[in-house]
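Quick question, first post here. What does this chain look like in 3D?
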Amino acid sequence: MKTNSQNSLAKTDDLSLDDESVANYLMEHPDFFATHEDLLLNLRISHKSGQAISLLERQVSLLRRKNDETQDKIKSFVENAKENDELFEKTRTIVLNIINTVSLQDLSNLIEEKLKKEFDASCSKLFFATEDNIEESESPLFLLPLELASKVLGKLFQRKRAYCGTLNSDQASLFFLDSTNISSVAIIPIHFHDENKFKARLPGVPLLVVASNKEKHFNSSLDTLFLDFIGEILSAQIKSLLTKDL
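> Answer (accepted):
Ran it through. Tokens below.
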């Protein structure tokens, strides 16, 4: 009596076999070599080195390579999880400090000191782009001319989410007097849903800027989830500070 595999092979006797036909047959019968062990001993596959190896050796080699790739992926996942865990702890600490500030000046000082430390940055500042005359202002806050900021930053000024990357010389000079040491930045816009309710008390359009002297410290591939979250917390706290006496 013929086996199923023999019957299947018999059906192909009248057909011209090609690589695809053989490959399809073996895919449909993964146990084929279990009943044809002698073939395993005779099959030879060319290796990149030019040497011939048996099918079993080739399978072992492939399995070892896939195992190495799997181990690399697992290692990468673990490292990313560790980085995210550390970033979460830093963000949690920053948020707790933000919600305990009692004034915009207090908040500005916190941003300048805390974010610089926690994000291993060169400097961090909370700016307010205002229509007021900065030269005549006695505000202790970091102020920017609104029209100039809008012109120099362009689309960066209108962004809804955080930007990570580099700035041109004009943009860097807008934020920092000594911009030669600034290689990468994170700009976090701060938005309000009901700004009109306290606009008269708002010093200007707020922008959080964190800078680094390392070129790739803040880059376009960086996940901005935590930075955007800090922006949302700042929005809520600024609103709270400006409306607490209303």
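The two ends are 95 Å apart (CA to CA).
Residues 55-98 form the longest helix (44 residues).
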